[in-house]
């Protein structure tokens, strides 16, 4: 399957710290791929390089066949990459529908002069943007909450609103940074089902960072593992679960042997 995202030798350095170190990664179209790793492994830095927030010192980011690592964030969004954040970044004092409309802004043709003169084109696009905002709020399960301030929404609803705003830019690739962080088990299960439905119903590709291994193993077609900025493993959930380097990265030296011993004991007890 043709990849929608590729990175070749992607490297990001902060002072003397190499946060992402020569990472090669390929994400096929219309898949759900995950990036995992211990805290400080470079996962969010990788997202920031992919979405244009950081410029890498070395390597390439290729999206849908086009090298994008020197483009601005708005240019990358327009090409079809959108994202959410580990810490929710909504416009707290704006309404839910206004937040979604901001995400849709990159698809509008009106200029600032159209807005000042309130031209027919501006009026038409504003109506269409409101309509699209309502449609997306309904899609993410927030129908009827469009006039609520974002800061007044429950935590889980804010997470969904952030996804609605990201979808408003009509992405081909959606980057989700810890979408279930801070959620209770029921909310996590609902979000997992929802993420899967995004791929299945919209045909978009999803790349996510997630610490909940039940979510990762249950939803991912492909998993890439970072440790100290380096990719140490890649494969299916089953392959990753039994990879000694991955186990050691999470459990420390001797972790693979400990995991194998526990697995044998569990099998024997069964």
Automatic annotation (TrEMBL):
It holds the Pfam family ABC_tran. Residues 5-253 form the ABC transporter domain. One of its GO terms (biological process) is L-valine import across plasma membrane. SMART domains: AAA. It comes from the Bacteria. Keywords: ATP-binding, Nucleotide-binding, Transport. InterPro entries: AAA+_ATPase (IPR003593), ABC_AA/LPS_Transport (IPR051120), ABC_transporter-like_ATP-bd (IPR003439), BCA_ABC_TP_C (IPR032823), P-loop_NTPase (IPR027417). Gene3D superfamilies: P-loop containing nucleotide triphosphate hydrolases (3.40.50.300). GO terms for cellular component: plasma membrane. This is ABC transporter.
């Amino acid at each position: 399957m043709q990849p929608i995202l590729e990175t070749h030798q992607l490297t990001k350095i902060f002072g003397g710290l190499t946060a992402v170190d020569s990472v090669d990664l390929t994400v096929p179209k219309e898949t759900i791929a995950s990036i995992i790793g211990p805290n400080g492994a470079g996962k969010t830095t990788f997202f920031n390089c992919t979405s244009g927030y950081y410029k890498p010192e070395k390597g390439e980011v290729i999206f849908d066949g086009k090298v994008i690592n020197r483009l601005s964030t708005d240019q990358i969004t327009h090409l079809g990459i959108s994202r959410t954040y580990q810490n929710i970044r909504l416009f707290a004092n704006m309404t839910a529908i206004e937040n979604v409309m901001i995400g849709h802004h990159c698809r509008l043709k009106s200029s600032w002069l159209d807005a000042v003169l309130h031209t027919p084109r501006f009026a038409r696009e504003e109506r269409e943007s409101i309509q699209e905002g309502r449609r997306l709020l309904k899609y993410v399960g927030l129908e009827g909450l469009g006039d609520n301030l974002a800061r007044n929404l429950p935590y889980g609803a804010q997470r969904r609103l952030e996804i609605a705003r990201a979808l408003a830019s009509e992405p081909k690739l959606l980057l989700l940074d810890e979408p279930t962080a801070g959620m209770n088990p029921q909310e996590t299960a609902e979000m997992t089902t929802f993420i899967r439905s995004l791929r299945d119903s919209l045909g978009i590709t999803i790349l996510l960072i997630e610490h909940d291994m039940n979510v990762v193993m249950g939803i991912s077609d492909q998993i890439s593992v970072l440790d100290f900025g380096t990719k140490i493993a890649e494969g299916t959930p089953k392959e990753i679960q039994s990879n000694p380097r991955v186990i050691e990265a999470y459990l420390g030296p001797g972790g693979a042997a400990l995991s194998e011993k526990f697995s044998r004991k569990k099998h024997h007890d069964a």
